[in-house]
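ok new one. same drill as before - structure tokens go in, u give me an amino acid for every spot. 458 of them this time. try not to just spam alanines like last time pls lmao
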């Protein structure tokens, strides 16, 4: 009887403590919601928008001084020289932009944005699956629109991103998202645009003690080549079956590569590996091919041009991959591809799923301007060139009549870290909130030290 009484008292105390614990968690949740939630997505455009007086950077190399843009129902309805008499404008949201610069939305390729949040916390990482062959895994459905990193990225002019999977050999299927949405369904801009493959590197060490290890590495690479070829052959054979039964979801996801409706993104950096990869996949009839990384793309520009292969370069703030390369080669790569007529764009981190500092994409391509790349061509690289690779250039990438109103307005040069200050961002005609966690922290501590300095002066 005494044991039953003790057990009853214990359960009651446990219940009370559990309620306190739950209330504590709820209080923490409310606090986090109040101070750390990203801004709500903007409402659908209601009034037409008129932006007047700005310098318009079209994205195709053309620049219009003292220009005008009209936006209605999410689309650009006019762009060119100023034609509107502002004294007669009614029912328009007029934005005076004299002295400012308007650009198409920048596009971030091969990003882990919305898939990775805190690198040291495994529960916030959702960028890869177990196994080597996962082309059917869709990165889009893992995209987290509540990520705190999204508003930070938008604040530098990036309003569109390709979220891409990592891991294994065939990592999965990427999609394009616009960065102002309630959920991944709202965010989807182009669904399942391509499949990512991590191509094995054949570069081996030359150290004194690496002889036996190198032999085993070469054998492992050759085995991976066979696995890739066998998988591609199985997928090609499967794609020719009119009504397969049962359905193999892995092979079914590959069908678009052979039909030309999907693009194959090959992560590779060394010249020999890039050439091997392109020649291998072309044997199976795959034509839409993009190299991602491309550290040595400048060495094989003729090959890339002849095979109609586009390139997504890694950001320029890095050292060369080979010790005997010029330290300037990462910065010159873009200009050399441009001169050779190879379609290229730039990502920020191509080797891993990290989203560290991906907001600095415009400054990375801006650095290439100091090493031979024309500034308007640099802008085109991360706008219309990226849109062409992704297959969305009919909707975005340039400021043209009939295209989606995806644009940003900066107080200065968007590619220059000293003058990039985004004052306005528009996604499909919706003016979005540019607040973010870093701005809130800046304000918080500026207020703190301004107050302290005032007290000290007293």
């Amino acid at each position: 009887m005494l044991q039953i009484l003790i057990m009853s008292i214990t359960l009651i105390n446990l219940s009370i403590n559990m309620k306190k614990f739950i209330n504590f968690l709820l209080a923490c949740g409310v606090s986090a919601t109040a101070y750390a939630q990203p801004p709500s997505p903007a409402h659908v455009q209601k009034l037409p928008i008129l932006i007047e007086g700005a310098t318009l950077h079209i994205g195709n190399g053309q620049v219009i001084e003292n220009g005008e843009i009209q936006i209605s129902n999410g689309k650009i309805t006019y762009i060119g020289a100023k034609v509107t008499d502002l004294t007669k404008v009614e029912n328009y949201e007029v934005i005076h932009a004299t002295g400012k610069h308007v650009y198409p939305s920048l596009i971030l390729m091969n990003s882990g944005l919305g898939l990775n949040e805190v690198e040291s916390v495994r529960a916030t990482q959702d960028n890869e699956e177990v196994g080597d062959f996962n082309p059917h895994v869709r990165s889009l459905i893992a995209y987290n629109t509540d990520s705190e990193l999204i508003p930070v990225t938008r604040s530098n002019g990036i309003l569109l991103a390709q979220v891409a999977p990592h891991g294994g050999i065939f990592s999965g299927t990427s999609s394009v998202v616009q960065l102002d949405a309630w959920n991944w369904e709202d965010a989807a801009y182009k669904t399942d645009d391509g499949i990512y493959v991590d191509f094995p590197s054949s570069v081996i060490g030359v150290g004194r003690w690496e002889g036996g290890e190198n032999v085993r590495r070469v054998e492992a690479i050759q085995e991976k080549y066979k696995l890739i070829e066998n998988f591609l052959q199985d997928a090609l054979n499967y794609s020719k079956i009119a009504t397969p039964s049962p359905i193999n979801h892995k092979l079914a996801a590959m069908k678009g590569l052979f039909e030309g409706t999907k693009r194959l993104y090959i992560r590779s950096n060394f010249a020999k590996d890039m050439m091997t990869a392109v020649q291998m996949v072309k044997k199976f009839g795959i034509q839409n091919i993009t190299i991602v990384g491309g550290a040595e793309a400048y060495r094989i520009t003729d090959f890339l041009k002849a095979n109609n292969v586009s390139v997504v370069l890694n950001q320029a703030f890095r050292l060369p991959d080979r010790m005997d390369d010029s330290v300037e080669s990462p910065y010159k790569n873009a200009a050399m591809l441009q001169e050779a007529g190879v379609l290229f764009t730039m990502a920020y981190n191509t080797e891993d799923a990290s989203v560290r500092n991906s907001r600095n994409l415009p400054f990375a391509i801006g650095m290439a301007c100091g090493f031979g790349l024309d500034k308007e061509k640099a802008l085109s690289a991360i706008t219309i060139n990226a849109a062409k690779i992704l297959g969305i250039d009919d909707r975005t990438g340039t400021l043209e009549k009939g295209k989606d109103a995806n644009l940003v307005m900066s107080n200065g040069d968007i590619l220059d870290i000293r003058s990039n200050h985004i004052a306005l961002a528009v996604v499909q005609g919706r003016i979005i909130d540019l607040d973010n966690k870093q701005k809130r922290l800046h304000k918080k501590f500026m207020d703190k030290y301004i107050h302290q300095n005032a007290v000290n002066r007293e």
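The chain has two domains: 35-105+397-458, 109-148+164-176+188-390. and btw DSSP finds 13 helices and 16 strands in the chain.
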